[in-house]
Write a structure and sequence with these properties.
This protein is of the alpha/beta class. The protein has a single domain, classed as P-loop containing nucleotide triphosphate hydrolases (Rossmann fold), CATH 3.40.50. It is 51% helix and 12% strand. It is built from 7 helices and 5 strands; from the N terminus they run βαβααβααβαβα. Helix 1 crosses helix 7 and helix 3 packs antiparallel against helix 4. The radius of gyration is 15 Å and the shape is globular.
Length: 182
C-alpha cells in the first residue's frame, strides 16, 4: 500500500476524555496502527517541569512517531493510523500554561486527514498528569477545542457517555470520511 493512501486520524480534546482508550480501540477496530501520545511518557512532563521548549520538542517527536506509523501501516497494508494527540493539544496547552503556542507545530498540524474531538462527557479519572478535575474547567477548554476543530477540513465530535458508544461514533465518522473524500 502507498503511504499516501493511509488515512491519518488524530484524536484530540481536553484531559480525561477517553482519547487513549479511543485511540487503542479505534486502531484495533479498523485494523490500523495506534500512536501513543509522546507527552505521557516524557520525563519533563511527568516531573511537572514542562516548558514551552518541551512542547516544541514533543511536537517534533509526535510528528515523527505519526510519520513512522504511516510507513508501518503502508508496509503492512493497514488502512489507517490513529494518533492519541495532535497539534491542537500542544497549541492549547502552550496557550493555557505559557500564554503562547509553541513554535514548530506546522508538521503536526498538517498530518491528520480526519480529527476526532472527544468531548468531556465521561467521568474524570485521576491521573498524575491531569490538572482539571472540575467539569466546568474542562467544558470551558473544550469550547476552545470545538471552535478550533470547526475550522479543520474534516472533523467530528465524539460525545457519547460510554466508551463503546464513543467507538461506534468514531467508526461512523471514519466511514463517513472514507465515503465522502475526494
Amino acid at each position: 500500500m502507498n503511504a499516501s493512501a493511509v488515512i491519518r486520524i488524530a484524536i484530540t480534546g481536553v484531559e480525561s476524555t477517553g482519547k487513549t482508550t479511543l485511540t487503542e480501540a479505534l486502531g484495533a477496530r479498523l485494523g490500523g496502527v495506534a500512536v501513543r501520545e509522546c507527552a505521557r511518557y516524557d520525563a519533563e512532563v511527568i516531573a511537572g517541569k514542562a516548558t514551552l521548549a518541551t512542547l516544541e520538542r514533543l511536537a517534533d517527536a509526535q510528528a515523527e512517531a505519526c510519520e513512522a506509523a504511516v510507513q508501518r501501516a503502508a508496509a503492512t497494508g493497514a488502512a489507517c493510523v490513529v494518533s492519541d494527540t495532535d497539534a491542537l493539544v500542544l497549541r492549547l496547552w502552550g496557550e493555557h500554561a505559557f500564554d503562547r503556542a509553541p513554535a514548530g507545530l506546522e508538521r503536526l498540524e498538517a498530518w491528520p486527514d480526519l480529527t476526532l474531538l472527544c468531548a468531556p462527557t465521561i467521568p474524570w479519572e485521576a491521573d498524575p498528569l491531569r490538572s482539571m478535575p472540575r467539569l466546568e474547567d474542562r467544558l470551558a477548554l473544550h469550547a476552545t477545542y470545538a471552535e478550533a476543530a470547526a475550522a479543520l477540513p474534516a472533523h467530528a465530535i465524539i460525545d457519547a457517555t460510554a466508551h463503546e458508544k464513543r467507538l461506534d461514533q468514531a467508526v461512523r465518522a471514519f466511514q463517513n470520511f472514507v465515503d465522502n473524500r475526494g
